[in-house]
Amino acid sequence: MSPEPQTGPANRIAAELRAAIADGRYQPGAQLPPVRDLAKQYGVSRNTAAKAINILRTEGAIVTRYGSGAYVRESHPIRTLGPDRYARSKWQETRVRAHGEDDGREKEQQGTQAQEVEIVPAEEDVAVALGVPIASLVVERSRTVFRDGLPTHTMVSYYRPEEVRDTPIMDDRPGMAGRGGSFAILTDLGLAPQDVDEKLKARMPTTDEVDVLRLPPGEPVVELTRWIKTAEGYVVEYAKGVHAASRFEWLYSFPIPD
């Protein structure tokens, strides 16, 4: 049995405003009519009109600003993520450049990430992933990634200290680790990445995540958990990321299993 449609006056007003946003009558960033005007237009109380606005705000279609009103949420470029972002050719090419002339890539990376590198006790999931005792010390490399000045996601990677000590992975300056990223560094250490396991889970953000990613009300996040393994199945990096859902899409191609 399908659920009964929401047909109350607040829902009807929200539906009309939603349609007006969808067909472009209200562009991203445009201000919606004030609650008092909506109440007069639809012949309802201000409370009912405010409920309609709240429905759209909860859906994430609009944002409200105290003392200013309701605005259509700004759209942001969507970044497509798929297996090709791990392509060996990409980080090997950068690795080769690192031994040659400066192509400006390092400068391009500066300012795209704000990060910290610390030695911390391993929580249970980190310990299990890296095969170390709980509370033993691990390297935690945490960063917030920006695109066009907007935070898009956070990522925290974990490593065994004895494997990455005195490498660029320990460098907390903005940008990728070294000139070729962590995969190139691990390869130089004899720990070449071969396989990637990823788990994606959609959920609502925590208060801290709303602040860090500057999320509008009602926007979920996608939590990514990643295991980087050598050809022998040895985990050399464990990572956890939180992505603003409206700023990403994931694309995967794979053969159908038997």
UniProtKB/TrEMBL annotation:
- Organism the protein comes from: Nonomuraea wenchangensis
Superkingdom of this entry's organism?
Bacteria
- What's the short name of a Pfam family annotated to this entry? UTRA
- Specify residue ranges for compositional bias: Basic and acidic residues: 94-109
What residues does the HTH gntR-type domain cover?
7-75
**What is the protein named?**
GntR family transcriptional regulator
The record's Gene Ontology biological-process terms are: negative regulation of DNA-templated transcription
InterPro entries, alphabetically? Answer: Bact_HTH_transcr_reg (IPR050679), Chorismate_lyase_/UTRA_dom_sf (IPR028978), Tscrpt_reg_HTH_GntR (IPR000524), UTRA (IPR011663), WH-like_DNA-bd_sf (IPR036388), WH_DNA-bd_sf (IPR036390)
Could you tell me which CDD domains the record lists for this protein? Answer: WHTH_GntR (cd07377)
> Which PROSITE patterns would you find in this protein's record?
HTH_GNTR
User: Which portions of the sequence form the region Disordered?
Assistant: 94-114
Q: Which UniProt keywords apply?
A: DNA-binding, Transcription, Transcription regulation
Q: Molecular function terms in GO for this entry?
A: DNA binding; DNA-binding transcription factor activity
The record's listing under SUPFAM superfamilies reads: Chorismate lyase-like (SSF64288), Winged helix' DNA-binding domain (SSF46785)
